[in-house]
Predict the 3D structure of the following.
Amino acid sequence: MRVLVLGSGGREHALARALHRDPAVTALHCAPGNPGTAGIAANHALAPTDPTAVVELAERLAVDLVVVGPEAALVAGTGDAVRAAGIACFGPDRAAARIEGSKAFAKEIMAAAGVPTGDSRVCESSGEVDRALDLFGAPYVVKDDGLAAGKGVVVTDDREAAARHAGECGRVVIEEYLDGPEVSLFALSDGRHAVPMLPSQDYKRAYDGGEGPNTGGMGAYTPLPWAPDELVPEVMATVVRPVIDELRRRSTPFVGVLYAGLALTAKGVRVIEFNARFGDPEIQVVLDRLATPLAGLLQACALGGLPDDLRLSWSPGAAVNVVVAAENYPAAPVKGDVITGLDEAAQVPDAYVLHAGTALDDQGRLVAAGGRVLNVIGSGADITAARAAAYEAVGKIGLRGSHHRSDIALLP
Ligand code: AMP
Ligand code: GLY
């Protein structure tokens, strides 16, 4: 199978790595990819948000499957264009990707499908914002209706800050605060059937102890030893299958991965948000544990015919991902500093490094080129061992001004 992966982050490096080790994959391409994917795939310069360019490349490379990483590409209609060209595509059409692209649409689908989520109001004027803030009280949750790369949500006790964020966004969803641990669950779907992956947990705040600004995610681990056994079947029955059914009923079947961001509240499981693609940094740890070959799985989603009762196989043990972020991430990350120590990190048993925001400078040196620069993955018999491997490898890496959380996967 000839496969093209679209995107350039740690998620795409993890996908490429899992596809590279699948014997069914005979040719592996990334667009644009990054210096990490260059070691295992052919990189092609291209913007995944340009559907015409993607189709042209996919045809020229004669690929059997296109895997769309970033949500911006899905929302731009790359999935539609690839499918229209007769090429199998893992990643939904633009219409189904609205489950991520519009918070108001996601709420509408959940209401229609009877999926448990926080009570909310869509607000377009300051009067509506004031009434919704009064209705729900503090802590206030204000979400930009559109895509905002994980930065459109403000959760605050400060009413003025909440109202200010709403004013800056235009159309917002104001929501009941959901209290409880968060879980990310990825379900693979062919539009009709759905199969769950392992649940994982992400750390969204920039600093230890959940302090600091929201980020795209500073680390993750899987599995969740504290989660109830019935969590995954319950979420499949009450969240994932109803949403897949509702989207199919509307003639916009969801083909790809439905990412359910969940809060386990005192009142039960509630959906915080949906994404239409793999979560980053969670998919890195989930793929680390996946024993089922990935290519056939993604192709079965793209072509239809994913058995509903398929059970994925998982390596025993645990995986931890620690994100190394550039100086001043998430505000205005500093780019261009040289990264050292990757060879030393690669020597650490049970650890490896994925590239997330890196580039080669004009002297061929590896430099930081994004906010989240590297994903350092550790694995082991349990979370403690996986965590130790990841942090030992983090300790080998040099990047001036960089920061990482030291409490990833530190369980109480
Ligand atoms: P989102 O972009 O919707 O994933 O939101 C980013 C983060 O904001 C989530 O992972 C939560 O930590 C937090 N958040 C979003 N909605 C709520 C809510 N209703 N109650 C509490 N926290 C929330
Ligand atoms: N891990 C958060 C996200 O991918 O949106």
Notes: DSSP finds 13 helices and 22 strands in the chain. The CA atoms of residues 228 and 407 lie 23 Å apart.
